[in-house]
Amino acid sequence: MPACGIRRSSAAFKRPWTFEDTSESLQVKSADKTGLCSIYYEDEPGRRRVMNRLSREQARQLAVQITRFPELLDELEKLRAARDDPA
C-alpha cells in the first residue's frame, strides 16, 4: 500500500469518469454508469445561502476535478515510481 494510505481504489470504477447535470445536482459516474457521488447546488442566491449549497458553477468546477481523480492517481504513481527507481 502506498505511504499515503490510498490504494488504487479508482481502478475498481471504469474510466472515464463523467458527470451529468440533473435538476438540483451533478452526478459523477463511471463509464459503466456506476454512481460515484452527487454534488448538490442551488441557483437562487437566497435559497443557496439558507440551504448552504454551492452555485451551479462551483458544483461544475468540483465535478470536473473529481472526474480527473483517476488521472491524478496515475500521475502520482508515475512520480513515485520515478522517485523510487534506483538509477
Characterise the protein shown here.
A hairpin with a 3-residue loop joins β1 and β2. The protein is α+β, with helices and mostly antiparallel strands. It has one domain. It is built from 3 helices and 3 strands. The N terminus is likely disordered. Strands 1-2-3 form a 3-stranded antiparallel sheet, with helices on one face. The longest helix has 16 residues. Helices cover 40% and strands 17% of the residues. The two termini are 23 Å apart.
Keywords:
three-stranded antiparallel sheet, 87 residues, alpha+beta
Average pLDDT level: 89
Main sheet properties: 3 strands, antiparallel
Q: In whole angstroms, how far apart are the ends? A: 23 Å
Q: Can you write the helix and strand succession as a string?
A: EEEHHH
How many domains make up the 3D coordinates? 1
Dominant shape: elongated
Give the uncertain stretches in residue-range form.
1-7
Sheet-strand content, in percent, reads 15-25%
Placed side by side, the strands forming the largest sheet appear as 1-2-3
Measured as a percent range, the helix fraction is 40-55%
Number of strand segments:
3
Count of DSSP-assigned helices: 3
Structural class: alpha+beta
For the CA atoms, what is the radius of gyration?
17 Å
